[in-house]
């Protein structure tokens, strides 16, 4: 199969604003050959995406994005591709994370309401935001409520004005546990947007080599944080280490200027990445 793909999409089941079916319909309209639904710490939308993909002849890869702690680094993101998303142990672990995320979201709403009170504005109701979430309540859903009430002009303004200053720390998977889980489920572990860890290449090289020793199998070379030089460097790194490289827009539906399939406009990820992931899984 030929054509372009997008291996990093988010739905309402984590912090995106489109349902899995809507994402599939968008991908079909764009003429993509394959996509991966990679919600944060959630797999609840995958079956819906798979069914919608079959209806329009779009290949959908089951995926998952885990928020990981590694040494001094927090919020390192690991993508697990082609894993068994129906595994009971995985579902139980993710439910625990989802419950904690719900409590985190409630705490964020409480802090936002404190800020709104100081501003002389009426509070928001977390249940309004929960209605927008297909799965776990996330910050984009809270932002949508703030925009709807006229407290922010757009999603970005809602984050700058309320979500970022009222944030509450979230829990992370230990990196060895995350890599072992992906491996146990028959998946392929890929480091998402590596330069989000650090822009210092010598430090990033050390981090990625340490992750490789723990079982990392690939890097997301094309994403919305990397420039062309970063992407070329990551592809070269993958080649030298015998890793797979992938790419994706990290589309949530809220970022200004980011489009499915092309990211900020120039991303073009070939279907050969899917073939290589399948070889690694086999």
From TrEMBL:
Q: Which CDD domains does the entry mention?
A: PHP_HisPPase_AMP
- InterPro entries found in the cross-reference section: PHP_dom, PHP_domain, Pol/His_phosphatase_N, Pol/histidinol_Pase-like
Domain of life of the source: Bacteria
- GO MF term list: 5'-3' DNA exonuclease activity; 5'-3' RNA exonuclease activity
**Which ranges carry the Polymerase/histidinol phosphatase N-terminal domain?**
5-70
Q: What is this protein called?
A: Phosphatase
Organism phylogeny: Bacteria, Pseudomonadati, Thermodesulfobacteriota, Desulfuromonadia, Geobacterales
């Amino acid at each position: 199969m030929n054509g372009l793909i997008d291996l990093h999409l988010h739905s309402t089941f984590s912090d995106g604003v489109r349902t899995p079916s809507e994402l599939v319909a968008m991908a079909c309209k764009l003429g993509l050959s394959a996509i991966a639904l990679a919600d944060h710490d959630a797999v609840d939308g995958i079956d819906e995406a798979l069914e919608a993909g079959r209806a329009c002849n779009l290949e959908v890869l089951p995926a998952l994005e885990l928020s990981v702690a590694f040494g001094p680094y927090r919020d390192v993101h690991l993508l697990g591709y082609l894993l068994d998303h129906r595994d009971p142990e995985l579902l139980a672990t993710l439910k625990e994370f989802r419950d904690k995320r719900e409590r985190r979201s409630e705490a964020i709403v409480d802090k936002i309401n404190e800020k709104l009170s100081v501003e002389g504005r009426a509070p928001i109701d977390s249940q309004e935001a929960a209605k927008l979430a297909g799965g776990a309540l996330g910050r984009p859903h809270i932002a949508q409520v703030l925009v709807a009430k006229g407290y922010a002009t757009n999603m970005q303004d809602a984050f700058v004005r309320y979500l970022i200053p009222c944030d509450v720390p979230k829990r992370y998977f230990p990196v060895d546990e995350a890599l072992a889980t992906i491996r146990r489920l028959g998946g392929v572990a890929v480091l998402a947007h590596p330069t989000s860890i650090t822009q210092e290449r010598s430090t990033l090289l050390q981090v990625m080599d340490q992750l490789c020793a723990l079982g990392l199998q690939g890097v997301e070379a094309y994403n919305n944080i990397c420039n062309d030089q970063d992407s070329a460097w990551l592809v070269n790194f993958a080649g030298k280490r015998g890793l797979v490289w992938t790419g994706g827009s990290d589309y949530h539906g809220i970022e200004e200027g980011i489009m499915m399939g092309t990211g900020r406009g120039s991303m073009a990820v070939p279907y050969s990445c899917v073939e290589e992931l399948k070889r690694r899984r086999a």
